[in-house]
User: What shape does this take?
Amino acid sequence: MRIVELSGGVGGARLARGLAALAQVDLTIVVNVGDDAENHGLAICPDLDTVVYTLAGEAGPHGWGRRDDTFIFNEELARFGVDNRFRLGDRDLALKLFRTRELEGGQPLSKVTATIASRFGIEPTVLPATDDRLRTMVRIPGGWVTFQEYFVERRHEDEVLELRFEGGMEARPAPGVVEAIASADLIVIGPSNPPLSIWPILAVDGVRAAIASHARVSAVSPLIGGKPIKGPADRVMQSLGLPAGNRGVVAAYEGLIDRLAIDESDRDDAGDLEGVVDVLITDIMIKEQAAATSLAATLVKQ
Amino acid sequence: MRIVELSGGVGGARLARGLAALAQVDLTIVVNVGDDAENHGLAICPDLDTVVYTLAGEAGPHGWGRRDDTFIFNEELARFGVDNRFRLGDRDLALKLFRTRELEGGQPLSKVTATIASRFGIEPTVLPATDDRLRTMVRIPGGWVTFQEYFVERRHEDEVLELRFEGGMEARPAPGVVEAIASADLIVIGPSNPPLSIWPILAVDGVRAAIASHARVSAVSPLIGGKPIKGPADRVMQSLGLPAGNRGVVAAYEGLIDRLAIDESDRDDAGDLEGVVDVLITDIMIKEQAAATSLAATLVKQ
Assistant: This one.
């Protein structure tokens, strides 16, 4: 069975690991690059790295970064007055530096990502949504800021008034993205922040249309009891004018999904949603690998 | 008393720390940049860093790199098939990255070095010989290679047939270098490899002439019993056609020095050298700070 998952960071990555654990699944993960940034001259791709590390069983304790990493380099930066709020682990740094050098050498991000994935022995195909430059810009009450400034430096405390996907209009899908979507038996939108993590993928020319024309697109809600497991999804959705809770998730994916997986604890939402989309009521809390695999199996079987 | 030391890496750095420990000494260290390289896109200045770390009491156990450093990043590079023979410590990496960014931002190396030195609370003035690009090229039986290839990758095992200081003809002294030499009461050439560490400094336009016209220039021999404490100085000097032992050191600095400090164990060399230069017989083994300070005091007093 061919599955394509659209993924942001931690939640999407965990679901990807669940899907990858299923027998006879040919998995492609199309990953958000809107959070990408340059930090200390290094090419930072937070979501791609989280997906790779998670699939390799090498993700850090909070879902991001490398397991068993150290932060000697990052601490030492403070001596030079260098902003080190974006915490780069020593082990993680090797990947960042390898990628930076390869990109500077002219390799496209999708190729570099494939090399990195192979170095971690990962079987699924991990694709950036685009090889072109695409940057999520966030308008907060003080004006437009980069995603990293909003998320890391300002700790996603500001109200998000508007999003813009810089380069989105010109960005072409990375080789294989549209082909994987077109030939997939099932598309899964991971439990990622819809506006901040999934919309940038959909902003890439041709991706939204490819998803919209697909017959089977399931999304996994990033909300349980109206709140995300982590991050500011509920606040961002609200300030962007989306309805609260799972209705907001459906609205964020209007015209794209035919099914939404919601948590058992939110079964009361189902009545409200049925008629717009199919509702799959299951356990969507996937902090552990077993839960992720179980959710993946449920998505595939039903 | 104003002193200028010309220095390569470990030996020169240790003497610098000894000189810095003397009361009422105004010390400027002019440091070799011929070993500088780009590694993983980072600006590597081995001798400048050894001098800074040594003066800060932060040098690694073998004289180079940072004390108490870890090599997590360096080890992880192997996963990506990246050449990691030039070992970069995690703590050390922060300095390298800071320098790289500052240079890319248009700061000259001398300014960046001053900033780094101040961040380590170092009082002496540490100057690169030049802000311009100067690279020591080494001809080995297989052809011309960079200093780093000769020294690190090929472990200085090849015979050195010829040296070339690429950029040396055009390189201008860094601001303050010639001024410091001209106004110094004493010039000390540290116990560094004469051809590999000191000649590149002398290759910078105007530096050789400034040293040659100075009345008091002492060199400290890098050899004890004809052998260096570390490194290939004796073999390099031999293959470049210089006489063996301390006669070779004097020949390497012909027309520049008026005095050579040699080790007590080499006092038999004195007869051979007197008449060409003054000879100061003392303990020149300076692995420990106390010995370095003692040698520095002897150089200054006599």
Notes: The longest strand of chain B covers residues 2-7. Chain B has a mean pLDDT of 96. Chain B has one domain: 2-301. The two ends of chain B are 13 Å apart (CA to CA).
